[in-house]
Here is the input.
Amino acid sequence: MLRLIWKNAWRSRRRTVLTILSVAVSLFLLSTMLCYLSSGEQQLESAGASLRVVTRHQTSLTFFLPEAYTAKIAAVPHVTVVQGCVWWGGQIKGKEMSLFMSTIAADLEPTEKMWDDYRFEPGVLDKMRGELRGAVIARRALERAREQEGWEIGKTVTMTSPIFKHDIELLLLGTCEGPDESIVLFRRDYLEKVRGNPGQIGYFWARVDKAENIPGVCRDVDAMFANSESETKTETEKAFMQSFMSMMGNIEDLVRNIGLAVVAMILMVAANTMAMVARERTTEHAVMRCLGFTRGRIAVLFISESVLISLLGAAVGVGGAVLLYRPGKFDAGGMAPFFHMTPSTTATGLLVALGVGLVAGAAPAIAAARRSVVDGLRRVD
Amino acid sequence: MGLILKYNIRNLFVRRVSTLMTLAGVAMVVAVFLVLMALAQGILSIGETTGDPLQAIILQKGTNAETSSGIPDEAADEAENVGMVERDPNGPIVARDLFIVIMLPRPDGGAPANLVVRGVTGRAFDIRPEVKVDGGKRPRGSDIIVGRPLSKRFAHLNVGDKVHFGKRDWNVIGHFDADGQAWESEVWVDLPEIQADANRKNTVSSLFVRLNRPEDLEALNEQLEKSANTKQLKAMTVRDYFKGQTGTAQMLQVVGGFITFLLSLGAGLGAMNTMYAAVGNRAREIGTLRALGFGRFTILVSFLFESALIGLAGGALGCLIALPVNGLQTGTMNWVSFTETAFSFRITPAMLGVGLGIGGLVGAVGGFLPALAAARRPILASLRAT
Amino acid sequence: MSDALAEVTGVTKDYKRDKQSIRVLEALSLTIPRGDFLALMGPSGSGKTTLLNLLAGIDQPTSGKITVDGKTITGLGEGALAKWRSRTTGFIFQLYNLIPVLTAYENVELPLLLTSLSRAERRQHVMQALDIVGLSDRSKHFPRQLSGGQEQRVAIARAIVVDPVLLLADEPTGDLDAKSADEVLTLLQRLNREFRKTIVMVTHDPKAAARATRILHLEKGQLVETAA
Ligand SMILES: Nc1ncnc2c1ncn2[C@@H]1O[C@H](COP(=O)(O)OP(=O)(O)OP(=O)(O)O)[C@@H](O)[C@H]1O
Ligand SMILES: [Mg+2]
Here is the structure.
């Protein structure tokens, strides 16, 4: 039985190969889009487990908070460590659009405790203590910048900001590895010095001792600054991230709709192939019925062939995506740190192929089953 | 040749199912392409239509966005009088704007997003006649006006709503349109009120002027250089300024190109299948035509035409599928100001042309090898085929 | 110009199948006079169709020379041969080979597209050809709406519409019932007598062959003449 299905599938080798390739290319695209969707979800998920909360100006991130808030937030019960940060949004001087790097000025001392999900190169944070302009760069970001700009550890690089009018010069001291692979971290006191000591902070990270204390800390911090000159908004890392994603617009819906169009296209190609096969085998199916094969059995044979072809397409397309989008190998230039195939995206791709195979095979199979033996035998042309 | 083409067209109808399925596949490609490009075009058109070629924006040097620009009143007063800009009986028409980013929740309670609040004086309306407020209202005190598309994208921005940002509640007294220009994504507030609220007294972010002639931009910059107060300022055209903020569109075009390419490949392979079958089923007809004296080239062209026609029809269907998104409102992040820009999908006739072209190309490329096979097959082999 | 319309001189035809080569025609020579109606008979596989294809210029001999109407067609290039075919020969197939999606009229018009005739001139020629085969009232019908005999007559109209000097028919009655076959043969005869067309017809049917002016037997690649 299986042998027969396999042999049938390869009777028109060229057509089968073309169909498999077509399904493969489209499923590869679909997998890519699924990766995009799941990378967003995973990012949120990983943020969901975090014990960090963010405190920003109540109006928006573009308003600064006073440096003095550092100690006040640290004094809130259950807060273990506080770090003041400023988003620099670094771009390489003269090549503003070339590389995306999230360059952040941060208080140096709390770094290690705050970012326990990052692995810093041993000794690099100590080196930063001795070097005002020192910076640590994500390993992947360095790799890309090395390729494009020849960056190396030990080099001094000039960066500009879309927000601040000064340029900064950073001395690359070492690397780190963690969820955000586009990060460049430098000392906030250096930025303060460059800006003439305004004592301003963009946002605070605060670490809470236990997950159940997070809502309380958020409330307490905001209550403390209510009705002050600079009111605050404190939220979880996940909520903070969600608002960034929300600003990207309805991209996820768009991606989903395009995904549907892709599935429709795969279905058209596969169904067309199976309709052609059915037409060619009309007589043969009638002959098989004469030999005693039931309608059902012939339909099963036919649909199995269809499923086999789509699954072979999936093996190439989804398989290719699994090989290409391996964890840590592919991150869309640092912008999508979780861009890789997960078991669930792989399964989705395979399920789509299975569904396409079933539907593509079913319509001609049903039509064939309805046809009488005599009719089938007559249609020799 | 007309008869041969008729021959091809009629054959498309004979194998309707196969034609329709191939055509629908191509339609998907073209529809996806158009939707993505309509999105990009929507963003691009903000940059292309905002302001007019004579409008210029004056910002603090070293910044490329209003977000990070600060112009003290003394500098603004002086810049206002350097000349070369349009005037009316009340003096030079110079709009002093304060650009503030606030965060508001979504109407459906989703995660909040950033948007622009622009502090404006009456001059803002003089220089931007395209801004039309319902009932001609002006922001004053805690009364504010809101770009119409924003009311659907953020909570509390309907007329009559009270919205809280900064240190107090504001009343939404009207919506405004601006011919699809960037202003439609903004909330406009009385300048002194927002200066006080945001602790930005005696500063603005930008000055908007209209030059007398395009060449005056250089002269204006030279004038600004001359005084210590205005040395820190620079002018550029409003068009250039907003064009610099359409990076998302370029990204969309690249991504759209990638998606379209892969999909075209998939659809092209499908078309190839269809055409190989067509060429195979009609081998004897091809042999007959050749025996009658039709050359290989005619056969090649005829089948290429047939396949391109499927593609073109698919392209046309794709255009029809995509057309309804034209004018649909949506929003995206402006990567310079980190605020949301509201815009609408925009499908231009040129894009439809390109869509049709892609359809035709997918058909022609997919049909090329089969057509070549048909043309190259020896006459006798074709005639013998069953 | 000699009296011979077609001259086949020392033609040998080999077919290569896999590595092995089969000789179908061996040093065959044949003269077909102008106005001849030649019936070609012989057992299956003897090379009748092969010879006809060579005369029609849709196949090339391995060696030897074929001249039709003063023009040597052996060794002609692809394009030149196609052009020559469209002017000089009319081919009638056993299975008619009409284009199913074209009407009788359009099928007959097809070869005229290769000429520089105007639309009106083409119309005149087509109607004339259909008239000769007695099917002017069926011009708008599609092949599937015609009987086998009618289809073959449309095919004959298509073959004569460019007014070729040589008509080649491969078992034109092979798929027809006796009555239709008779009509087709009568038509061919008329074309030969009235319109002075030179015809070469392959057939297995002695009754069909009897309608010709000359019968040739092809056996093992060689010709044997029999009086008609
Ligand atoms: N393209 C080809 N390749 C290989 N062998 C061929 C080819 N065409 C013809 N032959 C062989 O040449 C021989 C003569 O074929 P041909 O078709 O001329 O015979 P025929 O006399 O027309 O027979 P029939 O009466 O059955 O039509 C046969 O043995 C056939 O197998
Ligand atoms: Mg034969």
Remarks:
- The interface with chain B takes residues 53, 56, 58-59, 78-79, 82-87, 91, 93, 95, 97, 99-102, 106, 109-111, 113-114, 158 of chain C (CB under 8 Å).
- The domain at 34-58+77-226 of chain C is CATH 3.40.50.300 (Rossmann fold).
